[in-house]
Amino acid sequence: MAALPITPVPAPAPEVALSQIGRIVNTFIAPSKTFTDVRRSASWWAPFILLSVVALAFFYQVDQKIGFRKVAENQIAESARATRQMEQLPPGQREQALIRQTAGMRYFLYGYPLIILLWNLIIAAVLFATFKFAASGELKFSASLAVVMYASLPLLVKTILSMLSVAAGASPDSFNIRNPVATNPGYFLTRADAPFLYGIATAVDICMIWTLILTAIGFSCIGKVKRSTAMTIVFGWYVVFTLAAVGLSALSG
Hints:
Blueprint: H1 20-29, H2 31-38, H3 45-65, H4 68-78, H5 80-88, H6 91-110, H7 112-133, H8 141-151, H9 155-167, H10 195-203, H11 206-223, H12 227-252
Helix pairs in contact: 1-2, 2-11, 3-7, 3-9, 4-6, 7-8, 8-11, 10-12, 11-12
């Protein structure tokens, strides 16, 4: 009796490595592909450079169109406490205080790439520790940082919309560099009138929620954690941070 021919089982197709541009594009249209590729290579320089360049372009535009001095004046007007302190100063000291605040803002904004890096390192460390020890995730810190960087890309949408708003002639008197475009309800409120409500409303930001969802998808992919668990961890930390930041801001006036 002749032996039946054995049909060979085809080997699974190897995963195609994504380029940095491919990762950036897929973050918006097929995020699981990007974050699955992060397991292969935890490179994060491309989104970091893109975020930095667009942010610096926006700040340069604000400097030219509105002026950092006006931005500083608007920030003082947002805080009842800061306004009282400025009003109590003699005119000469008030001018010097405004000059110092304007200079400090200029250094801070043009040094923003360093802020992006440090902040994302902190976020990545907190989420890495939480997923590693609380959810038994199988992940590395380098991959966690890459996820946080790529997940931050939707914030580019807010920055680009802000640039379009400034280019279209946004009013210098009402311009708020911390919340320059209407992607959240806080845009329509005044911080000086209700600091706590303003902070909560500002936190409900479309682009930030998009970023949080991507972050959860990313950690689910690299850590082999249930998507629901990842969503709970990411949004839970965001709520904790938001309440703490808003509470401190409200107390400071």
